[in-house]
Amino acid sequence: MLTTSPRELPSLLSNSRLGSLSVSAALSQILPASVEVLRAVGEVAQAAELVADMRAIVSDALHALVGFAAGSHLLATGDASGALRELRGPFRMWASLCAPYEAARCRLLIGRALRVLDDEESAVAELSGARRAFAELGAAPAEHEAGQLLHAAAPGGLTAREIGAATGRGWEDQPRDRRDAGAQGEDGLPAT
Questions:
Q1: How many CA atoms lie within 13 A of 37 on its CB side?
Q2: Which domains does the chain have, with CATH numbers?
């Protein structure tokens, strides 16, 4: 249970031994992580309250972090439409700030939300974009996660590697009609 109000954190942090780390930077790490921890331990209402408190105290520079935390929370609690609304702004902001990892994290959640909303084509596009960005950055665990989410759409339970080996292209690069479960060649592999 959180014993310090988020509104008290700036003064608490300014009196602590942060060295050159600014209060804003410390808050940008503590508050979104707190939402995730609260959600993980089942304190959904308290996480929602913290998101509301965060909106009241953050500067413009931290809105993308708050939007990501709120979108993540909404998606985890079943509000895919709300998550999508929350995540589009942070994605645009991270992209405009040339922060590809953060933008890709947003795309990953946007893809998950679109899949929940039964927009598979858009979900695959977002997840593929996130996966490519993670690959370019060398973020292997995040790339793997995006790949796993893309794998969920593959026919016959094939992995992206199996599809790539059979076709010479990755699953996400296949035309939409080839990704449909029934689009298989004579050998049972995805048609090329």
A1: 9
A2: 22-174 (1.25.40.10)
